Amino acid sequence: MATRNSGRIAPSARTVLLFCATAAVFICTDRTPAGGQTKEPPSTAQGQPPANELDRTFTLEEVSLFDLDDQQVMGLRLGHWVRCTEAPDPNVVAYPTFKSQHPLYGTLSLPYPPDKQSSSTAYRFAIDESGTTGQGYDRLYFDLNHDGDLTNDKILAVPKDPADRPILGFRGTQQVCFETVAIPLPFDAQSSHPLELMPRLMGSPNGKVLGFVATKARKGQIQLGDRKYDVLLGHVYVLAGWFDNPRVTLYVVPAGGERFGWGDGNPLAYTQKINGTFYRFSATPAGDKLTVHPYAGPLGTLEVGPGDRKIGTMLISGSLRTATTTVPLGIWVADGRPLEPARSCKLPVGDYRLDHLTVQMDGLSAVILNNYYSDGKPMDKRNRQNTYGIAIREDKPFVLEFSSKPQVLFALPASDHRVKRGQELSVKAVLIDPALDVMFRYLKQGQQLDPKVTITRANGEIVAQGVMPFGSDGTRGYSWRVPNDLTLNGNGETFTITVTYDTRDLYGTVIGNRELVVYRQ
Length: 521
Prior knowledge:
The protein has one helix at residues 74-78; strands at residues 30-31, 38-39, 56-59, 61-64, 80-84, 104-110, 121-128, 139-142, 155-157, 175-177, 181-186, 192-204, 207-214, 216-224, 227-234, 249-254, 265-267, 272-274, 277-283, 289-294, 299-304, 314-321, 326-329, 344-348, 350-361, 364-370, 390-392, 398-400, 407-412, 418-420, 424-433, 438-445, 447-448, 452-456, 462-467, 476-481, 492-502, 509-519. By secondary structure, it is mainly beta. The strands form 8 sheets. Strands 22, 23, 25, 26, 27, 29, 31, 32, 33 and 36 form a 10-stranded antiparallel beta sheet that branches. Strands 4-14-15-16-17 form a 5-stranded antiparallel beta sheet, with no helix packed on it. Strands 5, 10, 11, 12 and 13 form a 5-stranded antiparallel beta sheet that branches. 36% of the residues are buried.
């Protein structure tokens, strides 16, 4: 249970950092399970709308997040999280005089600046204790006027009766909710409107976060084909803008008492396949109108095949992405049911790249993502464009065989890296398919197939070795503290890092090498 208090959070509270990703729901037309072939209902097998189904616009009403069921809208209640530190921000012109010996600092960065001149807006804030240090944080200084001075804005306190504020059901976690703040965001081409946010502090000495929760959502009922659905439109994880923003989350569930669960929400820009038909959605900035766009264009086929491998069953699930939308893979079985893997899929005609894909090959399972790394640059692909190499056409199936030659990409270290004795060497490497520009997040056959790493001298002597388990940032990571007494040939010596992936029947053994210099001074 969450720990309720008088509105303060003690610095010793334990943090629960739950960075959750809304699961994309994706659909295909047929699969090959162990017992034979299963198809979608013939009336919807092609993914096209029922006859005469046209674009339709529905009215949504404003609802308070505090009035919605807690478990149904947990994603909305999490808010936009900002990590707090105890280091002052050098960009702040003036801070108030703090009573706490350990005030907290942070910055809320939003993608839409009020002046529309810069790429983002940074709102600095600080959190203080009104009593003595250790009694609990209960005063929030927020630079709403964006002048870098935290002394001339209204102090956000803790409401005297915080019972109506949403407390997350995280066990062992103290939370405090502050008074709301209204931040101006561009509403249309001519004006900005204030978006009301409720700051919520959660934390422990190991890491505190301030979550900014949008207090209003939009709710209504729509009709897709001959069925009615309840919808909920709101901000999950990211404060991207108003309700017409592609990253705002839309929940769609069958009407009649269904709960809005974690897996029911997708970004507004996503293509969804509901009751066998592909749909896209758009909303007005105010969120009072939601328009449904059934897809009636041509379809093509995506297949997964073994290539030259001797593999019996191959199934895929996940999603592909175009320049404007994400499209689902997997079998639509029924409303409210998770989608199932498939052998082949009907998709709208277009050029795609892999977004998130799970491939099952007999007993081997692989999770594949769009590659967001570059050589020597983890989490950085700014120097190359997205590759939309999956061409779905009406007249010819695209067969995904993973027949290109794979590579091991070293995000770390860079090719010219030098490390001093006594320092720590970080090795992060990913298995990639350069033709599709994708990375393999993990491979599993019974157990996870972690790659091995060895560091050797030119004569083959091994100075370090181990496994490289999957890292939290998407790479597989290995670290080595270079011994202070490591014998070197001269002032600096070149060593070779070798990373070996055992991919079983997918590619066999894949090896990558990187040289680095270890030096004395």
